[in-house]
Predict the structure.
Amino acid sequence: MSTFCKVCLLCSLGLSLFIFAMVNAKKDQRGDIKFCVSLGMQLAVTMCAIRITHGANALSNRSVRRWYRRFQAGATSVDDLPRSGRQSISTGPMLNNIQTILDQNPSISMSALAQQVGVSHGTAHKAVTKTLRMKK
C-alpha cells in the first residue's frame, strides 16, 4: 500500500484523476475544490485530491474544509471575502502629493508636510522614510 490515506479510491490507487494545471496558486486550488463540490465529492476525498494534485503546496486541511463548506453553501467566487479594518493611507495619490511637495520644497519640516497633506506626523514620516525611501 502506498503512503496515501485509505479514505478514498483516489488515494488508495495513488492516482490523480484530476487534470488540473500544475499551478499551485490558492485560487486554482479553490477552483479545484469548487469543482469537487460540483461533482458531489465528499470532503475527505476532496482533501485527498487537493493533497495529491498540489503536493507540498496544497492548502491546509482547515482551508480546504472552509472553502468546501463555503461552496456547498452556494458561494461561487474563488476570491477572498473583503476584509474589515482601516485601509492604508499610504496610497498613490497621497504619496504623489508628498513627492510633489518635497520636490518643490525639500527643506520643509515633517510637521509642516504632515499638515499640508492632512495626515499625522508619524504617517508622513513613515511615508517619506519607508515608502518613498527618502531621508529627511
About this structure: The helical segments are 9-13, 26-39, 43-54, 61-72, 92-104, 110-117, 121-131. The CA atoms of residues 6 and 12 lie 6 Å apart.
